[in-house]
Amino acid sequence: MTTTTSRPIPIPDERSAEFFKAAQQGRLLIKRCPACGRNLAPQKEICDGCSNEALEWVQASGQGSIYSFVVMHQLLHPAFKDEVPYNVIVVELDEGPRLTSNLVGSANNEIKVGQRVEAVFEEVSDDVAIPKFRVVGSAP
Ligand SMILES: [Zn+2]
Q: What does pLDDT average to over the chain?
């Protein structure tokens, strides 16, 4: 078994390339169903409402509120050893879909359900930026 200390980086494929390209430009994309108008999380391939598979990308505001969160104390990947404990939040975007991400710029013990958050983008490689969130009004 080989060990690596580099963080796992998402590799854009044809389904996610658009999402990561937009993230690099500081834009958060979600999916939208043109048949029934429902907004969906970016990873959705089929509409929850009408099973339509022809979803389109639309730009989200990047604004939402914390729906739930956990603070992870357990090390699940060696590359994150310097970051334990770290938080995992579920953000309910103003457009409706929920995204799993991390809250940056706040202490883990200050995270509260219902806090207003906005997307920020963390560049992890030349072609991948990952949306994270910070509390609205907190320092960049
Ligand atoms: Zn639909």
A: 90
